[in-house]
Amino acid sequence: MSNLCLWNEFELKKPPLVTIQVEDTGFAKHVFVDINRYLQHQTAPVALEFNQTAALLGRLMARRKSSFRTMPGFASVCKLNEALCRLLRLDLPRDLEHFRGALPDVCDDELSGEMPTRSSLEYILVRLLSFYHLHERIRQCCVRTARYFGQMLSNNFFMEFLTVLLAAIAKINNISKIQANNCAKLYNKLLKQRCNFPTVEKHKFLPENYEMPTQLLVIKLTEQTPSEAKETNPATVTLNTQPSTVVTKMDRAMKKAKADVGTVVARQNPKSSTETAFHLDSLATVDDVKRFIVRESKARQQTPKNCVTNSMQNHEWLSAKTIFEQKLKAKEEAKALNIFRKFIANKI
Fold first, then answer.
1. 156-182: pLDDT as tens digits
2. According to the 3-state scheme, what is the secondary structure of 244-304?
3. SS3 content of the chain, % helix, strand, coil (to 5)
4. How far apart are CA 55 and CA 85, in angstroms?
5. For the CA atoms of the chain, what is the radius of gyration?
6. Which of 7, 156, 205, 314: disulfide with 129, CB 3.0–4.6 Å?
């Protein structure tokens, strides 16, 4: 079996988790700390953002699978989504938690204890290789997809959709580098402890003549500061501070028309006579409301602009009278008065 086929095999047979008594358990402390630190990275907000963005990419792909099915770039999106789904099914944290649970609770150079066999550690190392190479595949698909749809975006095709798609791909690519680096660091540390784990002759996980990578490459993450960005791209600063515009005759005519706007005069809306003449306290009893209804009904017919309820429409005034009369017939005078007062206070 070749090196490629072993880490690329999805249905990899897991060796039995067997523990053997050893004299020295001091190295297990470093293994426990390294695995625990990696699992903390996997539950960080960055890892949650990666899962959410991957789910968003899947929804975007499903939305445009009919209109983009003949585009070469859409095939890269499908491959990217397939790699993300396979990464989710790999479930590396679960295997790491099982292996961490098999380590002794108390570790020291002078204490003996039960340790998992080397085959279990080699299974974890192969799974780390799968995780690392899957992220490498994800970044390759991100670059191909961004290159294709970036050209479409420059030609003003599907502006809104492609902007969201490229933003999701860029975020996946950046977080993939971080997760791949965490995986490479854990692999390099666990590989150094491989010789300390006990072996069983009858339970060998790796095939004969199989050589594991001695070290995984850690990707360098570089971020430009604002001052460095200005130095590397000074043309953008010039364009932002001194934009070049062409003024036409129509623009000059519009500016001249807008300039002649006269003098600004501050005007205040005078208070109407109804606001000063009417007070809600005048509706204290049911008889006051009845007189008010008779007076306002007559005023709305003769002089609607000068009546107190001129802001109310006819159907609103009719509803207020009808509700008031119904409550009076039901012998609920206090309720009728309260409802009518609230209705008038909200409308005036």
1. 677 677 788 888 888 999 999 999 999
2. CCCCCHHHHHHHHHHHCCCCCCCCCCCCCHHHHHCCHHHCCCHHHHHHHHHHHHHHHHHCC
3. 65, 0, 35
4. 9
5. 38
6. 7
